[in-house]
Amino acid sequence: MINPLKKLINPIIIKLGSRIEKKQFTGIPIIIGACPRSGTTILLSILGAHPNIYAIPNQTYAFDRWENISSHNEENKKWRPTRLDRLYLQFIIHRIPKTAKRWLEKTPKHVRSFEKILDYFQDRVKLINILRDGRAVVVSKHPKHKPDQYWISVERWIEDVNIGLKLDNHPSVLNIKYEDLINEFEKTMVRIYEFIGEEKPENLNEWINNTNIKKSMHWAAPVQNIYAHAMDRWRKPEHAERVKEFMNNPEAVNLLKKLGYTD
To answer: Whole-model pTM above 0.90?
Structure first.
């Protein structure tokens, strides 16, 4: 049941937010999705350093819930997001730099709605999905939500990765590896900038100084330079049982091999 106050306020938020969107943003939006704990926040921060891009600080879940707006006789269903107020509220409450020509949103769960998002925007959107070694994902812990427990199940990693790979050849979708972002930073960022249609900043390596995303509830500390040693945390003895659970799942192992994680 919809809260009566929200039912009254949400249309106002959408009206004001969409007005800001039309006035401020002339470029097509960018949305990042993935299995959680795969590096979405760090990519948000890196891209947020580009003067043409406004990185929305909060996960909006604006494209998490949908309603069918097609008639019952239509074979192809048409979907409309029901939580757009959560996106437009960000435009209202945050100061958007005058140079920003497009918005960037990151909610990992949105990878599950990529097909609907493409249909809703009529392909006038750029979607980025980050893939990461499942062993590293399932041993990761969220610094704010139950920090003493593993955050992502083996089954969740399998499901989210498979969903993202379904659109691997779509021209509006880019799959990248977290490990490539770490090990081949400039090469990977050039690929991303080419995909979204932006020039690579001359001061790319100074992104920490220029981004508007310097803190996040998804990080244990303020933004830091990317580093490689985080990729091997899953090898620590303390995670041995968790990794064993992962490697005992045939579907997880097959997917790991498919993605090229062979060691």
So the answer is: yes
